[in-house]
Amino acid sequence: MVPPQWYLLLATAVFCIGVLGILTRRNALIFLMSVELMLNAANINLVYFSQFWGNVTGQTFSLFTLALAAAEVAIGIGIILVLYRNFDDVDVTKAVTMRW
Amino acid sequence: MSSPELKSDISYTRGLAALALFVVMAAVVIGANFGAGQGYPGDANLTASIGYAMFNVGIEGISGQTLVDSEGFLVAFEIIDLVLVAALAGAVLLARRERSESVTAMLADGGRELKRTIRGDSSNDDTADRAHDGGDQ
User: Would the CB atoms of B26 and A9 count as touching at under 8 Å?
Assistant: First the structure.
């Protein structure tokens, strides 16, 4: 069995790439992709520790995380669409007012 | 034709913050002790086990295959069902182009149609405006 440290390092790297994307980029679509990376980093841990402890709870839970990610993307794309309609751009720093 | 290139107008300070987070988390992970794992039985039917776990079916009375224990997820399944339907409805509500003077118009297109109606612009202007928008909005 591969030691847990390798899987955790992989998940940490994926999570930090997601954090990097959110902190450095201004494109709303990149934001959405970065959030997905962070969610999937959690999934890697869930699936690995599910196998580590010989129990499928983590694997089943990761399926629900994927479904939640799909719901989040559906709403996220809708919000980005409205953002583009109103600001003619998907730059998240341009939307600074509640009304325009 | 332009070739792909790395983004250069990003904040490097924030990038370093993410890198520092990785270094700290990696140091903690490498230094942690998780003990010995037990793993799944060699002949375990994982797909069936996940299916039974998802619908709260107990595995005690099921014979003929090796199943893996889990908690029940029926309530979570129903909740995620509602969340997905709500997300679908929300996405459609946000994405559709509303042509009437409703609150949804304000939400979905910033009230452009409503403003146009209040200003009393003609339908020709409306068509021209749409053409100017490029039709992709």
Answer: yes
∠ CA B32-A43-A10, rounded to 5° = 50
Interface test with B, best of A48, A49, A60 (most B CBs within 10 A): A60
CA of B37: which chain A residue's CA is closest? A52
Q: State pTM to two decimals.
A: 0.78
ipTM of the complex: 0.85
Neighbours of A66 (CB within 10 A): 14
A32 CA to centre of own chain: 7
CA–centroid distance for B84 within its chain: 10
Least CB-CB distance to A71: which of B30, B84, B109? B84
Tens of pLDDT along B74-92?
999 999 999 999 999 999 9
Each residue's pLDDT tens digit, A68-95: 999 999 999 999 998 898 888 888 888 8
